[in-house]
Amino acid sequence: MATVDGGRLVVDALKREGVEYIFSLSGGHINSIYQACLDSGIQVIDTRHEQAAAHMAEAWGRLTGKPGVCVVTAGPGFTDAVTGVANACQASSPMLVISGRSGVSETETLALQELEQIDIIRPLIKWGRVVYQTHRLDEFTAMAFRHGMTGRPGPVFLEIPVDVMNQQVEESQVVRAEGYRPRYRPAGSEEGIAQALDLLRQAERPAVIAGSGAHFAGAAEELEAFAQLTDLPVFTSNMGQGLLADDDPHWFGSPMVGLGTLSTCDVVLLLGGRLGLFMGQGRPPFIAADAKLIQVDVEGSEIGRNRRVDVGITGDVKEILKQMIEQVRERPFSHSKWLDSTSDQARQGRRQLLASAPGFDKEEPIHPARLMHEIREFLDDDAVIAADGGDTQVELAPEDVHLDATVLRHALLRDLHRRHDFDAADDRRLEAFGRTVHLVQHTIDAVAHAEAFLERLPDYDSEIQARYEEASGDGKRLRYVARLGVDGSAAVGLEAVDADHPFSNINLTDNIVQFETDRYSANPLVVQGPGAGPEVTAGGVFGDLLRLAQYLSPGA
Questions:
Q1: Is there a single domain that holds both residue 127 and residue 152?
Q2: For residues 534 and 555, is the Cβ–Cβ distance under 8 A?
Q3: What's the domain count of the chain?
Q4: Strand ranges, E, within 309-371
Q5: Which residue of 196, 253, 315, 327 has the fewest CB atoms within a 10 Å radius of its CB?
């Protein structure tokens, strides 16, 4: 009778699920998986660090909607991958992590890289198990896919001791999984959908926000059809970008950019979005306190988080949109007048955001937002931009929500939404990823310029100090004061201190961005708005600091 080892059983299960790549760094505990991949056609993407492997697997799952598979060795290989798993947990990305472990027979012997791994990772995963029997490895791998892909997707974990991985078992003993996970999506309550549509029909200023749940459901076509039927403005989160085409008149950009419009809406339909930080917890100013909220999510426990909902519907976004489309066709309604009247306002939101940045129009030093603007203008329409978090993503967003270049190419993401697959027809789009290298080179050039600029910072400081001494003659020095609130707010200003005082200081302040006017109103050395007191001016980066202080000051 033929025999098979544990690595072959794992790879057979991966192949059955359509896995094409595993992201990994080699190690003895997982060697048999590598050997099986050679015969199966699954490509091993070998990284130089397990952290990179985990992040690549998470990104694959996030973009394609298919589980990204990360395979790591025991101990430090496992711990290196934890941050990528945390990302998948927070982003609800489908991801399977397979980790080696010291052998069962070596337990509590201080074996190579022996570690209680599953206790470490359990808070970050939907499901995880240690597999102690080789003949059940196919079965447990199938369980992992079922838990990771059913309902809201997320990371799952399999830990396989090295002796279980390498053991040979008879084919007749192997438990081969069949029919192990649902293939149909859960629809929503017809009564709940009818109630939601009544709210939208009666609204004066309704809007839709599509989030990651719409992305993972592959609901692009349904969202487009629903928007066209109802003429509702549609906002999309980062993961929802590409659900509507760039030039679709119903697409109003992100909730952040469209804040001026979204905050005036009286009914909001939230499709697979989570009311967290980047949606202001669903509270003002993102969503008005008296606005009606309709929340659709495949995970029922997500509905009602952070604010009251008027209609909550549990189910798959794609299926629920199909149901909504059917009901709207039976009882049509349109908000075309509202769409037309608010479209210009939404387009102005981004421009106003940029215009408010002090020093944006300066030639030198270049403002970060302007650098992002120039990069975006330089790139071709089909370029792919890899942006690392924070302000960069906001600054890279198009000034007009219907421009072609965005943080990630909408055309590419749109195809991913519709197919959740890469096939031969996508070759030309996959080539767009190669253009990222082109962008990286330009970014390196920009960083080199920034580094050269940083070397000149002492000169700018000297310039400011000299101008102050010339104007005041009191022998004191200026220090730069940044006050950071516990809620993330900040204020910046200048203060005159004795020459031996520490150059800078950080203090906590109130929960809004403002100067403590009681403390500083008698001090003419704090930069104030026009007509409110003396102004200090200078070029360079500290000039930007001064202008920011002036911008934030009372009376500005």
A1: yes
A2: no
A3: 4
A4: 311-314
A5: 327
